[in-house]
Amino acid sequence: MAAIARSLRRRSSSPSLPAATFFSRFMNTLVLGEHENGFVKPSSLNAVSAAKAIGEDNSVSLLLAGSGPELRDAASRAASSHPSISQVLVADSDVLKHPLAEPWAELVHLVQKKCGYSYIVSASSSFGKNVLPRAAALLDVSPITDVTEILEPRLFIRPIYAGNALCTVRYTGANPCMLTIRPTSFSLPHNADTTSDAASISQVDLSTFTEDTLGKSTWLNNTSQNTERPDLGNANIVVTGGRGLKSAENFKLLEKLAEKLGAAVGATRAAVDAEFVPNDLQVGQTGKIVAPQLYMAFGVSGAIQHLAGMRDSKVIVAINKDADAPIFQVADYGLVADLFKVIPEMLEKIPEK
Ligand SMILES: Cc1cc2nc3c(=O)[nH]c(=O)nc-3n(C[C@H](O)[C@H](O)[C@H](O)COP(=O)(O)OP(=O)(O)OC[C@H]3O[C@@H](n4cnc5c(N)ncnc54)[C@H](O)[C@@H]3O)c2cc1C
């Protein structure tokens, strides 16, 4: 079966979906791809890794939607962005220009009806959490969310109780088995940027695309931090501030440190609620899940809801003036000290990037 899948991959790119239909007799997976500025987001490539973890013979198609040159750039880069992508499906329409959940769910429904995938996978990002359940409802199946490990093709592990327990779930429903996966749990292969074996690119036939759901939500604008710093979800180093920072002004100290370290800035919910920083920096159960190489927590107590979002970090460093703060229970290195002394000292001693 693997040999057939591979030989199909090397066929010349076909213009529309029937080539994909051919895969339906095998284990095949549709991965929902997010893209920005002509690049596929790393979390979508983590979802491709997860799809491959379902089975070696799994044929993986990446679905990209949007319009214009950005979509075309993203598609051509996606074709050689991960060795496990067999084909890139491109849905080019103004209706799909912005990643609104309703048209995207319709699109997934349409593609699934034509191609009959056995799995549909998305990163557990805001986008995935928005689109996948809607598409699952249209397809009348029950999705499994926040998967961190794939034990067997239909046996998954996902955290429950804010990450304090792991639950093993067997999917017994009909196809497609729909999953959101935690990106940090599925790493990219080392040769992820290979250009030697590019996947084929096919256009999705949108002639039967129903637009019934359009108008239920409207795209207003995209507000992003427009910063040079890495994205919180994918950064190698995260420096997080808690209520101990005391003000938005003091958070600037942490931002300077992040700049020197090439790190992303995170925050606790208490810091977000106090309006020190916007809520897209929140790490935790109701924020982002991160697992960087280095996580530094300044003035963070270590509530379980916060730990749920960072406990898988490789090395955790905590700086807190209270020696009994629970964060020290998960920290690899702890410093009982006043952060207002520690951060300026670090800024002084760490050389410029
Ligand atoms: C349903 C639910 C979901 C939640 N989701 C999240 C979530 O996603 N993410 C999240 O973070 N929280 C979440 N919370 C909130 C969580 O329970 C905690 O309230 C929050 O994490 C506490 O944030 P904090 O550590 O910044 O503040 P605090 O608990 O107030 O801790 C501040 C810490 O700073 C230290 N400190 C103060 N001054 C200094 C100084 N000068 N130097 C060094 N240390 C200092 C103190 O000793 C203290 O340990 C959630 C809560 C609920 C109920």
From TrEMBL:
Record text on cofactor binding: Binds 1 FAD per dimer.
Keyword Transit peptide annotated: yes
One of the GO biological process terms: fatty acid beta-oxidation using acyl-CoA dehydrogenase
Annotated residues for binding of FAD: 243, 268-269, 282-286, 299-306, 320
Keyword presence, Transit peptide: yes
Cofactor: FAD
Main location group: mitochondrion
PROSITE patterns from the UniProt entry: ETF_ALPHA (PS00696)
Compartments reported by the entry: Mitochondrion matrix
GO annotation, cellular component aspect: mitochondrial matrix
Signal peptide as annotated in the record: none
Name of the protein: Electron transfer flavoprotein subunit alpha
Molecular function terms, GO-annotated: electron transfer activity; flavin adenine dinucleotide binding
All copies of domain Electron transfer flavoprotein alpha/beta-subunit N-terminal, residue ranges: 29-213
Function: The electron transfer flavoprotein serves as a specific electron acceptor for several dehydrogenases, including five acyl-CoA dehydrogenases, glutaryl-CoA and sarcosine dehydrogenase. It transfers the electrons to the main mitochondrial respiratory chain via ETF-ubiquinone oxidoreductase (ETF dehydrogenase).
Keywords for this protein: Electron transport, FAD, Flavoprotein, Mitochondrion, Transit peptide, Transport
Subunit composition and interactions: Heterodimer of an alpha and a beta subunit.
Record-stated family: Belongs to the ETF alpha-subunit/FixB family.
